[in-house]
Amino acid sequence: MRRVEIRGNRFVGDGYPTYVIAEIGINHNGSVEVTKKLIDAAVKAGCDAVKFQKRTPEICVPRDQWDKERDTPWGRMTYIQYKHKIEFGEAEYREIDEYCREQGIDWFASCWDEPSVDFIEQFNPVMYKMASASLTDLPLLEKVRSTGKPIMISTGMSTMDEIARVVKHIGTENLMIAHSTSAYPCEPQELNLRMIATLRGLYPDCPIGYSGHETGLATTEATVALGANFVERHFTLDRAMWGTDHAASVEPEGMNRLVRNIRDIETALGDGVKKVYDSEKEPIKRLRRVFLPE
Length: 294
Prior knowledge:
By secondary structure, the chain is an alpha/beta fold. It has a single domain, classed as Aldolase class I (TIM Barrel, Alpha-Beta Barrel). It contains eleven helices and twelve strands. The strands form three sheets. The chain has an eight-stranded parallel beta barrel with strand order 3-4-7-8-9-10-11-12, surrounded by six helices. Helix 9 packs parallel to helix 10.
């Protein structure tokens, strides 16, 4: 059966509501106050989870980039200083963990290096995500797999062969696969949403979903009709905020519409069994002139 249990009696898969993830990522700009506002907005919109990104800058930033200077909201600083500025430590994540529990929303993270997995594991997240850039990092995949938590892999910038090799390497147990195109923002002609059906056919035991970076909502909503079990969109308070991911993110009002429309689509899809509804019986009497014989 195509489903994954992410926590007690909470499943993602066929027959369950689409699991909607608001990716905060690094759109908090290093502020817990901004993070709480984003969590509040995600809860109000009806999202099921918020997601963060966790890195160890000295591992994830190439050494030749450390000392390059850039202008930031906190003044001019080196790139490695900036990367530390937007990374939360233990105190901040404890506050975030407690706040999410109070608000009744799941949270998890994509870890970009092995020490970050150890760090996040202390908070017992519902799952881990492997970012598209990390899909081929087999040691990191094995580290995440060793936690025993469900894994969501994102397949942007990857070939079918790479996806197949990774899935074979880690197995399909507790695995969720997200179709994605790693362009920010992504143009409609490169979204290739029919890949959702392709992945559903290839991996019948795995929930298949979508991680989108496009502008607008309609294409993300369409993935639900195509069989997506979960959807993820970057989330921001204001697309004009300073930072790399804000422009390809959804603002609170947009997330409200996205979740509302997804729930309407789920209801409208029905069960695929043709029936005559009570609401049609009066129109039959008024409009149908010829009836087929019994």
